[in-house]
Amino acid sequence: MTVQIRSFTDEDMSSLVKLLNETNRESYEFIPFDEEKLRSQIREWNLKILVAEEKGGIIGSVAYNNGHWGEEIEWLAVSENSNRKLVEKVMVREIEKHVKGETVFTVVDAGSPKIKEWAERGYKPEGGLYHMVAKLDGLKPLPKVPEDVIIRSLKPGEEKEFVEAVNAGFGWERVKLGIIQKRKSECPSFSEEWIHLAELDSKIVSVVVSRPDVKYNKFFSGKRGYLGPAATLPEHRGKNLASALTRRAMNFLFEKGMDSAALYTTEQNIPSVTLLRKLGFKIGHHWKFMRKNLSQQC
User: Fold this and answer.
1) Hey, what's the torsion of the CAs at 279, 267, 26, 260, to 10 degrees?
2) What is the pLDDT of residues 153-188, one digit of tens each?
3) Do the beta carbons of residue 259 and residue 135 sit within 8 Å?
């Protein structure tokens, strides 16, 4: 077997789309790629992509992303008709050379046999991610918050304060100015009223963003809303603000004709998971983070 590992070029796009769709077709809520969608994702995430070529055909690909959550192997896809494990081993070794820091991670379905395969490459499970979903079947009362807190929607012209509140709540730059216009371009029905906030002494102290789950609804003919990002300033936690805003957002989505709401949270964020369970959310899917410390390699 003679396999060449090289950098991806735009001429590989159609082959890469076919490969990703074939290898991910059984994945949870997988929405097939087309060339425009994949090209947009590559550009937005600034992905470094390698492909494995055999006899002039693309049989594998691996992608690296240095994003919000750290340095990540975004995908590893190899055709089942090839010597999959060997090709994957070579591709992972090559993409690791592009990691700038000491650690890199990837995301794998919890319970998947691929966890063992990543472990054989030196990756260890470290936390995970939940996709949580709740049915929307009516309006529910909001949990109580302190009397001096105002619960309302964002007003036009308040994007700067909104962005500052979200980033302060996360402790890093989670969103940037222009995010509202971006959401409007993705979904014309979206506006500032979809952003729910708690205000104290004329300052935004907690935020929950709601919006239509556009891609899911289009492909699966669904009526699902999406929540996120959600953030509360550290000094204002423990006041039911996140609970009240999440419930307000759920009520809002119900009034907009949605029959369910979904979001993502990490399994190690116990307070968030506990809060969401109380509001009716259940785990729809569970992924594990597999992380490798490259500095410990010989």
Assistant:
1) 10
2) 999 999 999 999 999 999 999 999 999 999 999 999
3) yes
**214, 188 contact by CB (below 8 A):** no
Q: What is the pLDDT of residues 194-208, one digit of tens each?
A: 999 999 999 999 999
Q: Which domains does the chain have, with CATH numbers?
A: 4-101 (3.40.630.30), 138-258 (3.40.630.30)
What b/e string do you get for 200-233 counting C-beta neighbours within 10 Å, with b at 16 or more?
A: beeebbbbbbbbbbeebbeeeebbbbbbebbbbb
Q: How far is it, in rounded angstroms, from Cα 295 to Cα 282?
A: 38
- Give the contacts of 13 (CB within 8 A, at least 6 positions apart): 35, 38, 39
Tokens 């590992």 sit at which residue? Answer: 5
Tokens of 23: 């290898």
**How far is Cα 63 from Cα 85, in angstroms, rounded to an integer?**
17
The Cα–Cα gap between 236 and 259 comes to 31
pLDDT tens-place string over residues 74-110: 999 999 876 899 999 999 999 999 999 999 999 999 9
Phi and psi, residue 262, nearest 5°: -135, 155
User: For the chain, how far is it from start to end, CA to CA, in angstroms?
Assistant: 28
